[in-house]
Design brief:
Layout (H helix, E strand, L loop, with lengths): L7 H12 L2 H4 L2 E6 L11 H7 L3 E9 L1 E3 L2 E4 L2 E14 L8 E4 L2 E11 L4 E4 L3 E5 L2 E3 L6 E4 L2 E5 L2 E3 L6 E4 L2 E5 L6 E3 L6 E4 L2 E5 L10 E4 L6 E4 L3 E5 L2 E4 L5 E6 L3 E5 L2 E3 L4 E6 L3 E5 L3 E3 L6 E4 L3 E4 L4 E3 L6 E3 L4 E4 L4 E3 L6 E3 L4 E4 L13 E3 L4 E3 L8 E2 L11
Parallel strand pairs: 1-2, 2-5, 3-5, 4-6, 5-7, 6-8, 7-9, 7-10, 8-11, 9-12, 10-13, 11-14, 12-15, 13-16, 14-17, 15-18, 16-19, 17-20, 18-21, 19-22, 20-23, 21-24, 22-25, 23-26, 24-27, 25-28, 26-29, 27-30, 29-32, 30-33, 31-34, 32-35, 33-36, 35-37, 36-38, 37-39
Length: 395
């Protein structure tokens, strides 16, 4: 039997149905009320997922507190959102509370994941997390492996281990409305290895849209093993209790513009083991417990102007073990308790223009052990950096 054989209007409707995108033809949605109070609603997210096709667009609205571990594989174009909020606590405390594997264009919004072993995003997945809280994980809060993840206006806190761990892929931390906070985790705040980390901070207003990586038990942000990090806008790495606020090691690269690295227990920034670090904009590296910046082990650092390295306990900037510091001028290195800049062990310092180096507890500039400095250093006093250390003697 045919239904498209009589009249031009019927024929036109049939043509529209044929031309309609297949994604729209399979669009579906589900409602979850984990309290069981809503007639006809699913009582778990897992059951709602099972009712929907793997290929979307699909959506799931969630209310209440759900006792389950949510696992999805091979999903596309799926949104799960709290209506207005929802909480997921583990059915199995030893499992990941949320797993997204081999999935594309999955969005999670307005949901708190509390306990278990946090969230895992794996196998080239593409995921957006907005206004999400991941807390009290027995392991790492959020793990991303070889995936593209965007997290905004969210909180990762109180994990037993690190807050966020990234292995490969690209990971964005954004501040659309309120900023993202990674705080009070047992180890590293954010750790990226071999991947690309992008911290997009806010507008510098307090309170505002800043990203905050604070009070974690070890390093605030760690970039390792040929990883890259672009840190732009109002990102605050503050009060972390490990050896460094920002750690860049093993042939990795960090470029930071604006933001602050302050009041960490150890050195503000460690750039080591053949890594590249560069600071621009109104970046502050202040009041850290064991020095401001150290560039070491065949690494290079660039101060592009407007950088403030002040009030640190210890040396403002240490350049050691055949490393390079290049200053474009216009930077401030003031009131550190030890030397302003120390150049040590066959390292090189180039002043393209003058910096302000005053009020430090010992010398403005100290050169040691076959190191070399290029540029005009006549204004830096007191100093220990004689003609033997200068590429071009100052007359």
């Amino acid at each position: 039997m045919t239904i498209c054989s009589s009249g031009p209007k019927i024929l036109f409707i049939c043509m529209l149905l044929v031309l309609l995108p297949s994604s729209l033809a399979f669009a579906a949605g589900a409602t979850v009320d984990c309290s069981g109070a809503t007639p006809g609603a699913f009582t778990t997210i897992t059951a709602a997922l099972a009712s929907l096709p793997a290929a979307g667009p699909n959506s799931i609205s969630v209310t209440g507190t759900c006792h389950e571990n949510v696992v999805m594989f091979g999903r596309t174009d799926l949104t799960i959102f709290g209506n207005p909020t929802a909480t997921v606590v583990p059915g199995n405390a030893n499992g990941h509370l949320l797993v997204i594997d081999a999935s594309q264009r999955v969005g999670i919004q307005n949901i708190t994941f509390d306990g278990g072993r946090g969230a895992l995003i794996n196998d080239n997945s593409r995921v957006d997390l907005t206004s999400v809280t991941i807390q009290n994980s027995l392991g790492i809060g959020l793990t991303s492996i070889d995936s593209l993840v965007h997290i905004a206006d969210s909180t990762i806190k109180a994990s037993t281990r690190s807050g966020i761990s990234v292995g490969g892929g690209t990971f964005y931390v954004d501040s659309d409305v309120t900023g993202t906070t990674v705080t009070n985790n047992g180890r590293i705040g954010i750790a990226v290895s071999t991947g690309h980390l992008i911290l997009n901070g806010g507008d510098g207003v307090t309170p505002g849209t800043e990203n905050v990586i604070s009070n974690n038990g070890s390093v605030g942000v760690s970039v390792a093993n040929s990883a890259e990090a672009d840190i732009n806008g109002d990102n605050r790495i503050i009060g972390n209790q490990g050896p460094f606020g920002l750690e860049v090691i093993h042939t990795s690269t960090v470029i930071m513009s604006d933001g602050s690295i302050t009041s960490n227990a150890g050195v503000g920034v460690h750039c080591g083991e053949t890594s590249h670090c560069e600071w621009a904009g109104a970046t502050k590296i202040d009041s850290n417990g064991k020095g401001g910046i150290e560039i070491t082990d065949h690494s290079d650092g660039y101060l592009d102007g407007g950088i403030d390295v002040s009030g640190n306990t210890g040396v403002g900037v240490l350049v050691d073990l055949s490393s390079l510091l290049n200053s474009l001028g216009g930077n401030t290195i003031n009131n550190n308790t030890d030397d302003g800049i120390v150049l040590n062990t066959m390292s090189v310092l180039k002043f393209a223009a003058n910096d302000t180096i005053t009020g430090n507890g010992n010398l403005a500039l100290e050169c040691n052990n076959n190191s070399m400095v290029s540029g005009d250093i006549s204004t830096y006093k007191p100093k220990k950096c004689g003609a033997a250390f200068q590429a071009s003697p100052i007359n």
